[in-house]
Design a protein that fits this description.
This protein is α+β, with helices and mostly antiparallel strands. The protein is built from nine helices and nine strands. Strands 4-6-7-9-8 form a five-stranded mixed β-sheet. Keywords: ATP-binding, Kinase, Membrane, Nucleotide-binding, Phosphoprotein, Transferase, Transmembrane, Transmembrane helix, Two-component regulatory system.
């Protein structure tokens, strides 16, 4: 198992019947992005490159009796590649020149001389071509890698800034809604008509509730959320906003589902209105009560969200179509926007049921 904290990146590529999975961890990226090493310490880079050249020379000296003719530079190519990759293009060039001179003097016929025979010209030209090609390719890759690292850091900074601005916007919107709810409450004090005061109470409550839950409705990246992690804090906020300390809410999710950002506000308002109706009407004559919010699936086609209370239930002959409740009208309108259906069912208490496409 690879933890999320390691920021592991996967790339899967089909290859016939099999697949190739490339895994690059953050630690590997950081190490690669540090190349070339010792860029600000040339003396150290020169010393380590010299050790690579001497190691290549020693290895070539040891295997010389076992190699056929025509391979004087064979052990110096890896030294050039390592020096270029680890310490940069200058050290790669130094390794190429020093290795070429050592190989020419000790392993090219006639040995222990710098005589230029026709065959020597060809061998040296081939060696120079390979060395220059290796150095140029490695240098180009390191420049591209450095540019990629800068772009990645810029993207990270922009993402952090976007998330910060998003959170700040959420905070300000929430505060503004709370202020608007407070202003409506203040305005209510000047009104004597009971129906008008009740309407302002409802408007203030809804604005305050949206303000309380708006900070958790959206993700800065627009990602979907699980229904359980959405419903639990929502129910807590509704109970807290009601000021009824004796009301308890239980959230039951048998088969969790994802919630798209566009559906968050309508669904939050429907559940909040159902709970508010249960608190206001179902528990009007009592201080305690239990509200159950359950999410389940009906086959594979529909989601069902039920808000059940153990209150006094619906009045005799209640008809949701003829009810004049603004809260019920809002719930039914929002359910239609979600291509769903909202209904009230009598039973032990009252059940508000929302059916949505899965």
């Amino acid at each position: 198992m690879i933890s999320v904290a390691s920021r592991t990146r996967f790339r899967k590529r089909n290859a016939g019947e099999g697949a190739v999975i490339e895994v690059t961890t953050k630690a590997e990226r950081v190490w690669i992005e540090r190349l070339p090493l010792a860029a600000d310490r040339p003396v150290l880079g020169f010393a380590l490159t010299t050790l690579l050249i001497l190691a290549a020379f020693a290895l070539r000296w040891v295997v010389d009796p076992y190699l056929p003719g025509g391979f004087p530079f064979v052990t110096f190519f890896p030294a050039v590649i390592l020096a270029s990759a680890l310490f940069g293009v200058r050290m790669g060039a130094y390794a190429g020149i020093a290795g070429g001179l050592l190989a020419w003097y000790y392993f090219v016929e006639p040995k222990m001389t710098f005589v230029l025979l026709p065959g020597t010209w060809v061998a040296l030209a081939f060696y120079a071509l390979v060395v220059v090609t290796d150095i140029v390719i490695i240098h180009w890759m390191q420049r591209a890698n450095a540019k990629l690292a800068r772009e990645r850091e810029l993207s990270r900074v922009l993402a952090d800034t976007r998330e910060l601005l998003f959170r700040e916007l959420q905070h300000r919107v929430s505060n503004n809604l709370q202020v608007a709810a407070g202003l409506i409450t203040l305005q209510k004090r000047r009104i004597t008509d009971a129906d008008a005061r009740a309407a302002l109470d409802e408007a203030s409550r809804r604005l305050a509730l949206i303000g309380r839950i708006s900070r958790q409705l959206y993700d800065a990246g627009g990602a979907t959320r699980r229904m359980r992690e959405f419903l639990e804090p929502l129910c807590h906020d509704v109970i807290e906003a009601s000021g009824r300390t004796g009301i308890r809410c239980e959230v039951m999710v048998g088969d969790d589902a994802t919630l798209s950002p566009d559906a968050a506000i309508p669904l939050a308002l429907i559940v909040a209105e159902s709970m508010a109706n249960a608190i206001e009407h179902g528990f009007a004559d009592r201080e305690t009560g239990v509200i159950e919010v359950e999410l389940s699936r009906e086959g594979g086609e529909r989601l069902r969200i039920e808000v059940r209370d153990d209150g006094r239930g619906l009045p005799e002959g209640f008809d949701i179509d003829g009810a004049g409740s603004l809260g019920l009208s809002i719930a039914r309108t929002l359910a239609a926007q979600l291509s769903g259906k909202f209904e009230l069912v009598a039973g032990r208490g009252t059940t508000a049921r929302l059916l949505l496409p899965a």
